Amino acid sequence: MVYLAEFIGTAILTLLGGGVVAGVSLARSKALNGGWIVVTLGWGMAVAMAVYVVGATSGAHINPAVTLGLASIGEFDWALVPGYVLAQLAGAFAGAVLVYLVYLPHWKVTDDPQTKLGVFSTIPAVRNLVTNVLTEVIGTAMLLLGVLGIGSNSGYVSVEGGVDLSGLFTNGLAPLLIGLLVLAIGLSLGGPTGYAINPARDLGPRIAHAVLPIPGKGPSDWGYAWVPVVGPLVGGVIGAWIWQLTGFGG
């Protein structure tokens, strides 16, 4: 059940996240030229909705960097890591296929192959692999710090002689706060690389781009594909260990 939840959660993430990129990018879309604010808000809400749907079942990692980061500090069972990662990759692929189907008429009328690839995968604004990796490391470390911080503050606070509603608000709002965290990362750190901060979110859709019959799609840029995989995995572990070593979680 947890693997199914990770599959569905990552599919939701990719459907809504890739969908907003398609909406602002593909020719004759009603959202065409919506801009970066629309993209980052769409991705943030995509994460929030995915966490709301599957969080109670699997913890809604929906990201191999989160899974690996948590496992590295002993907050997640290593035995579950391979299954989680495979489910996340499969879910991201499935979500990308759904985006392809939703925008089916728009691929043919969109001329630029890079625009089509950008719906599925990240493309750096300035191609410098060293700084591109560094950007993904920093962004994903911030993601893990934020996720762990939100989780740490989602408990009940004791109030003598009163009714405590803090748990209701913090637990109910936690997925939305995580979505806002992703929005903040996108607005602040997403400009250089498009902020994958999630290996599944980039690799699964990139595979979909490679195999789907998209008219005039061009190459899938496999020479860059390792950057949004390695950078987030390293950043996830770093962010988790910063949290662990500082003792912020108590």
UniProtKB/TrEMBL annotation:
Location, primary (coarse class): membrane
Transmembrane segment boundaries: 6-27, 34-54, 84-104, 125-152, 172-197, 222-243
Name of this protein: Aquaporin
Source species of the chain: Nocardiopsis sinuspersici
PROSITE patterns in alphabetical order: MIP
Keywords: Membrane, Transmembrane, Transmembrane helix, Transport
Subcellular location as annotated: Membrane
Family, similarity comment: Belongs to the MIP/aquaporin (TC 1.A.8) family.
Superkingdom of source: Bacteria
Membrane topology per record: Multi-pass membrane protein
